[in-house]
Amino acid sequence: MLIKKFMLSLAVLGIFLIYSAGIRHQSPVLAKPSSLVASGSTPSSSTPPSGSSSTTPSGNTGSSTTASPPPTSTSTSGKYKDGTYTGSVADAYYGNVQVSVTVSGGKITNVKFLQYPNTHSTSVAINQQAMPYLQQEAIQAQSPNVQLISGATFTSQAFVQSLTSALSQA
């Protein structure tokens, strides 16, 4: 009888360990921001965010960088001056976030991640899912006022800081 209890306890412990190891290696699942669900547009999951698939942090420890050369023309149809602007480096706890925003016709046409947390496999997995949503929301909102993504809160907050910095130059 004692041997049966020991074997049963050992089996339960083994199952628990296997389950724990399996959960640890699963990719996190992020919910779509409500503004994307409501508009009916969804980003393509097979297309990586532009400029983010091979970028790595440059190691800059400064708190900000200078903007690209000033635009040669201004536009009166939108609320920003045309050109490409680089935001300040923002701390996202697990790494830095820095974005570059392109304005054309007075409107935000592209947002690129220059730096993002990518030193841990979990950070890479989370950011590969979150970055396209943040980019799309910024373009859709035409401002840094985007929905924070649950599960990528630090990256979302740092994205807003860097994007705000970039747009303040426009």
Structure described in brief:
By secondary structure, this protein is α+β, with helices and mostly antiparallel strands. The protein contains 4 helices and 4 strands, in the order ααββββαα.
Summing up helix and strand content along with how strands pair, one would put the structural category as alpha+beta
Radius of gyration: 21 Å
Under CATH, the topology is which? Sufe protein. Chain: A
Q: Order of helices and strands, N to C?
A: HHEEEEHH
What is the CATH class name? Alpha Beta
Instruction: Give me the number of helical elements.
Output: 4
User: Tell me about the biggest sheet?
Assistant: 4 strands, antiparallel
Strand content: 5-15%
Mean pLDDT: 76
- Please tell me what the overall shape is: rod-shaped
Residues in helices, as a percent range? 25-40%
Q: Report, as a whole number of angstroms, the end-to-end distance.
A: 78 Å
Residue ranges: pLDDT <50 for 5 or more in a row? 30-76
What's the number of structural domains?
Answer: 1
CATH architecture term: Alpha-Beta Complex
Q: Got a strand count? A: 4
